[in-house]
Specification:
172 residues; alpha/beta; Rossmann fold; six-stranded parallel beta sheet
Length: 172
């Protein structure tokens, strides 16, 4: 099937909203360039959305991270404008937790030659989706572009990259 680019949670709340960081803001141009490269080559690009409801603070995640974010339908839930423009016709996967089982099932059905991951946050949702996909597709080469990812902190970003590397994911 060729290559697939998975763009993880490039949403306003993780870039400049309630959980935004300067590192997340800094990767946006590189992620845009990566998406355009895949689109130019005719490869599939898919997007995940961290998706919570108003009762977020009552969930296990909300009790552990008591900052409302990515509430469905809000500005913070939407993709950053420059990324949203590129995602109009793409497949999108809303997920109420770190990894998207539905995405992993679809990737397994498509059985692509390669899968690359970019996005936010390296140490939470990126690593969850990468390792889940590795479990579903152990023989498919997986890549993470470290310049197109940012973690909660620079240190946790590096720790997540090391974890994925140790699980035979190519880090570029």
């Amino acid at each position: 099937m060729g290559k697939v680019l998975v763009v993880v949670d490039m949403q306003n709340d993780f870039i400049s909203g309630s959980l935004g960081t300067k590192e997340a803001q800094a990767i946006v141009p590189a992620v845009v360039a990566k998406i355009k490269e895949y689109q130019k080559n005719g490869d599939r690009v898919v997007y995940t959305y961290d998706t919570h409801e108003e009762n977020y603070l009552e969930t296990q995640e909300g009790r552990n991270l008591p900052v409302k974010h990515c509430i469905h339908g809000t500005w913070g839930w939407e993709l950053a404008d420059e990324i949203d423009e590129l995602a109009k016709e793409a497949e999108k996967y809303e997920k109420p937790t770190f990894g998207s089982r539905r995405l992993m099932e679809e990737l397994a059905k498509w059985n692509p030659d390669e899968i690359e991951f970019v996005g936010l946050c390296t140490d939470i949702c990126v690593v969850s989706n990468v390792l889940g996909t590795k479990a579903w597709l152990p023989e498919t080469p997986l890549t993470v572009d470290s310049c197109c990812c940012a973690g909660v902190t620079p240190e946790s970003h590096e720790t997540a990259l090391a974890t994925m590397r140790s699980c035979q994911v190519k880090i570029v």
